[in-house]
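Protocol step 4 of 6: structure prediction from sequence.
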Amino acid sequence: QVQMVESGGNLVQAGGSLRLSCATSGRFTSIEAMGWHRQAPGKQRELVAAISTGGDTTYADSVRGRFTISRDNAKNTVYLQMNSLKPEDTAVYYCNARIWINWAQGNYWGQGTQVTVSS
C-alpha cells in the first residue's frame, strides 16, 4: 500500500515563505513524475508545479518565479518552496505522483495540507 503524506502547511503573512514536503512510503517499484496541486474554497483543484524523474519542471503562471519544486529520489520526497506568498495562494495543497507497482501504474495523492496567507 502506497502512502503520500504532506507536511509544512501553516498560517503565514503575505510576503512570507513556507516549504512543503511530501514523503512517499509503502511498497512500490518506482516513482515517475511528482507534483503539487492546490484547491481553494469554491474553486477547482489546479496544478501548481510538477517535476519529472530527470528534474524537468513545470509551473503554473501564477506561481512561476515565486515557487520552486524539487525532489529527493533517495528519500522518495517532493518539496515545494513557496516565497513571496500572496493571500490568493491560500488553499489546501496536495502532492501527487505517478507510481509503478510491478507492471501497473497509478496516480496517488496525499491527504492535503492547509496553507493560509493573511494580508
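Step 5 (inspection) to follow. The chain has a mean pLDDT of 97.
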